Amino acid sequence: MKKQKNPDDKPFRDFWRLISPQDLLSRAGTVMMRKSPKATIWTAGITSSGYLSSYLGLPGFTGLQAIAAPFVVGGGMLGIGAGIKYVPRTISRKLATIAEANDLNLMEDYRKSQVIEHLNALWDRAFWYESDIRYARDQRLAERDRIIADKKYLRKEISGWDKGVLQRLGAGSEEDIDDIVMAIMTEKPLTDKIEMSREGYIISSIYALKHALPQSSQAKQIGFCLNLYEDACDGAYFDESDVKLFEQYAGNTTLTHIKNEVGFGRIDAAGQIARKASWRFWFYLITRKIATGVGKAVRDLNENYGTNMFNSQVLLWPGEEEGEWMDGFPGAKEKVLELRKSIVRGALGDNYENAAIMLDRMLLPCFEFATDLRLRYDPEYCDGSLDYVSEDQGTTIKNNIIGDLQSFGYRRSDIDRVRKYVTNAEKDISLLIDYLDTKGYKWILDDRLALRAVKTMFHTNKNRTRKMFQNSNTAVHQANIDRDIESAAAQKEIYSARLTGLRLHHELTILQIAGYRNLAKQLAYSG
Length: 527
Hints:
Elements: H1 11-18, H2 21-53, H3 63-104, H4 108-112, H5 115-134, H6 137-159, H7 163-168, H8 174-185, H9 198-210, H10 215-222, H11 227-233, H12 244-251, H13 253-262, H14 266-271, H15 273-305, H16 312-316, H17 332-348, H18 352-377, H19 379-383, E1 388-389, E2 396-397, H20 401-407, H21 412-438, H22 442-445, H23 448-459, H24 465-470, H25 475-490, H26 492-525
Antiparallel strand pairs: 1-2
């Protein structure tokens, strides 16, 4: 898939902006080192001829000159080339090391500071469906109202505590008391099942995120898996560690099982090589440019102000320039803002439109891989049945592949190709529903979890079920189809867990893009 052409999309211009003089010197040094053996051989040939010519009474080289010259020429080229190659690289690496050693990798904390925003998005586009398929609307509203009532009760009780205690707890405002209430309520998960309401899901999620537990035990306690989200949060913005989503796609067992079910093979993997190479290329260049710029700024700021207080987060965390500790360094705020803008624009370009293009090059491949996998596994993502209006917030939630591709500006030809695939998938599912109805599978039609599992199995063409369906007039084919249907229905919880994991991973790729865009805008393009 490719995005629509953008006149501002000029990869060669962006490439030259991201490389530095050190890169050119390093490349020149590499060439000299590679040429040094050939230069040695050529010089040896010339000096040997000169040495032999002296026996004929012609001007030539002495034996010492004939032996020494090749080593001087070849060794000189090798030594100079090594110096040109490794000295600039060492300097560049040193600056990146300064950034890393001064909390660049801890920009993961900025991502973790957005946890409520992330959890709400994951509820809307992944976990709400698990509540909707298991519980009635009245049950969800009842749980929400009960939690709201509990919060109100705790808030009232805490407000009546001794003022000295409240002061020592730092509860000087209503917001502080709300924080204490949330801390109390998130000390235990609400239940050990999929939560009914957004409020219950957030309580159990916060419990899981703030308690150090093995992931399997955590999932057992709260009733759902957050391992992919926790893993993604361990990557830091603009840091070389932010490859978690790519690693998930490559090796997570849930996603691997899904790949196997949809028939993801060597041809599919080969088709992704170019996009993977592009991702690695731009990710490396952008993160290195940011790291070296931040490292230099951290070094210079600390030297200029005679301190060690300035770190990578000062330059990359919006709002940190307003920290009280900055008051002790006159003019530092303005300098930080200037350096911040220079670093980010030096990597991403002079305007936000170009920055978005650069970030897309770095991040879209992960989204595309997850989208393709979800297209092939999740029938509801194809048919648009996941779109809904939020019960508690009244917002319209769009969760379908056509909408996602359109929102990221993909080409009409790619969208039309996907639309054709979606249309065929909808027809296949419609035929399946008719088959279930006519063959007496009312118990599956009445069990939404089982029906979703059967639809997923059929959509993935597991055991070539769709092919057999076209020839279901034979008794053997009908028996095999019925066997696969009943097997999928019996594994409804397994299918649900895999669907949720895939939807979670896919939404994380979208949140990653949105997070980077928003951060870049705040750092360098907001004013």
